[in-house]
What we know:
This protein has two domains: 37-239, Sandwich (Jelly Rolls), CATH 2.60.120; 247-421, Rossmann fold. The relative contact order is 0.14. The chain has helices spanning 5-15, 99-104, 189-192, 263-273, 284-290, 297-315, 331-340, 355-367, 374-383, 404-421, 428-438; strands at residues 41-46, 50-52, 58-61, 72-76, 78-79, 84-94, 110-116, 130-134, 136-141, 144-151, 157-164, 170-176, 179-187, 198-204, 206-210, 227-228, 238-239, 251-256, 279-283, 321-325, 345-350, 396-399, 453-454, 465-466. It is elongated. Helix 1 (5-15) packs across helix 6, helix 5 (284-290) crosses helix 6 and helix 9 packs across helix 10 (404-421). The two termini are 15 Å apart. 24% of the residues lie in helices and 25% in strands. The protein contains eleven helices and 24 strands. By secondary structure, the chain is an alpha+beta fold.
Amino acid sequence: MGRGRAFYEFKEEVRYKRTKSTKPPEDREEMEKEAEDKVRLDPHGSHLHFEVGPDGACGQPRFWARFPSLWSGCRLTHGVLQGKVGFEVRLESKLSTTQLEEQEDMDPCGLRVGWSLANTSLLLGEDDLSFAYDGCGKKVSGGKEEVFGELLSVGDIIGCYASFSTDGAVELSFHKNGRVMGVAFSLEASELLCRPLFPHVLCKSCSVRVLLDPTAPPWYPGPPEFTPLAALSAQQRVRTTLPPTSRAQCEVLLMVGLPGSGKSHWARTHMKQHPEEQYRLLGTEELLACMISDGQRTTRVQRASQCLTDLIKVAAQTPGNYILDQCNILFSARHYKLQLFTGFRRRVVVVFPSADEWKRRLSQHQLSGEQIPETALLKLQVSFSLPEQHSDLLEELQYVELPQEPARALLQEYTDEARRLLPPIVSQQEKKKTRHHKIRPHPHGPPPSHRIQWTGRHGGNGRRLNMQPWRQQPRYWSVPHQDPGSYYRDVGYSGYEGYW
């Protein structure tokens, strides 16, 4: 059975057990403010794993070397809803990948450019009101691809043009290196409903640059009567929502719960109920959606969990509101993450349903493809510690299903049952003792079924050594059984780190 999301998330959590306390980023009351009227790539309107360059006109995936199959998207700070407007994007360079990655992903470099509404996915072209020219010579919207234009290579420049009519309808066309590729999308006014379109880029293992200097000539002439977006007056452009300017204006929600308990469902529902907060959901599934690759899902899940660990550190230094959608069952992991977000309003949300409801949800969770080995689930239950209210670590503790005391009682039942079913944990000293005696030769030599048999290849004088398995009970010293209760002295940690 494959190792799923819970396995690799917990493996990352265990690392915090051996991590020293982190020093939170310095809290600056006033973050550096960008001029509201300057058009640039928007760090607040991008994936955290998209890195905007210092000039605000270039960018690339943040973790391209380790996670080359990760798509990273970013919108511009300003959009339009009238007139004839365009912008240009250049494919600056392909970011080299290892030979192994190229074998897993036959096309490690990818680029999409186009337009989208502000509330659509950052994966350009995957939503209905998101329109892309794909570097593979396709146009994409709503996740549907159609042959269009030409392939892109390093140095190519794509011109993206939006022509609004007086009734609010719009045509979206594209150029490649000054050559007309044609109209790709025609939208009725009833589709946009007077909502602005924003320039949008999405890239994988490549860097891009957008021409945003209002005084510079275009790289290639655009259609007649079209104006570069950066050259429009402030009255002709629409600014996206401004990000918070201090940590005190930001909020982080730390989800806590066993696999399948309903954390992700609660988080997404909360985001829909509070769209004004513009939460960024940081979770393994969100990263998997950005890893479009031919590689094995198990490999992608492992990479997504590792990437998420780094993204949480980036989030702690980037103004905004976040939901950390992980199990977060270890005290040490929660302590580390909450320290990172010192200065934010920190809320811990515990999702702990009744036993029957959790069983039902877990069954649905596994039917959807997220298989959790039984032994792994038992070890998660043993490792789980419920959070307490600590004024120095969090401002609010919320139990959204069972209250704290009933949840604590039920968790104790889970823990007792899991300890009964799991084998005892062998200490490191006992493991060394066992290994020491395993290498001692048997006083009378191995039994006949285990003796060396020469088969005539690669052994002495060119013959291979064939060791037949010894099926008799080995005469090693046995490890005495110990009381399982002695294995769980550390708060929120079972000692089962060897499994993960």
